[in-house]
Please model this.
Amino acid sequence: MTGAQPVPFLKGHGTENDFVILPDPDGLLELTAETVARLCDRRAGIGGDGLLRVVRSASHPEAREMAADAEWFMDYRNSDGSVAEMCGNGVRVFVRCLERAGLVKAGEVAVATRAGVKRTHLAEDGSGVTVAMGPAVLPEGAVNVRVGARSWDAVHVNMGNPHAVAFVGELADAGSLLEAPAVEPAAAYPTGTNVEFVVDRGHRHVAMRVHERGSGETRSCGTGACAVMVAAARRDGLDPVADGEDATYTVDVPGGTLVITERADGEIEMTGPAVIVAEGTVEAEWLRA
Ligand SMILES: N[C@@H](CCC[C@H](N)C(=O)O)C(=O)O
Model:
């Protein structure tokens, strides 16, 4: 992955969706799937649901075209080392990390991702970060989620990455989620999917659990919360673009709360916390072993 020098890292989370963060402005790290999985290992590594590499867009082949609009590229990996298009909690933590390093100031910050450029707003008082996540896409066709003997109709939502959203009676109905739920038809999700289980908590207020593609059950998923908000709004007869009126939902996740607004122009805005908890260095020898 690197030479003999220790590798700087940070650790952060957004609603307890936690990340190993590797500052790599010039894109010099060779980050294999195996290296990512080792770093994200909770016993033998640092531990995290995923990894965020902080690299200048101009220094990364997947982001060069976005460099004029966003100086920084969020190279996101799941904890099993797989690459994902987008991470909603990750992008908030990513801009918090840039702010902490003095690379950006509070206010508007654009971030390049594999799902395009995302515009964020860092609150001046450090309270949270709002991200314009783009519009949701709801591909046609029924999908179904199954855990053991139980199954539910689900809503297929794409937030740059894929989601299957199932409304359930109780969050416990999803079981232990130690294994990935079965989702059918498999052809609807050629690269796998994240699965959300949702219950109502009140007026425009829901709670969810998530099984993330490439990471397992996590304490939160930002893109998942946006997918849940859209699925709940449609179920409730709301379509902000058709109605000409914004709709806001509170989405509780095991690790906290996210507030999601679907605007009348179709843009989905997510607001939530972003916390850096530690920084240090990784032994180069260990990484190479
Ligand atoms: N936790 C993330 C989503 C991370 C990517 C996901 N596991 C995938 O493979 O699509 C979020 O906060 O959105």
Summary: The two ends are 10 Å apart (CA to CA).
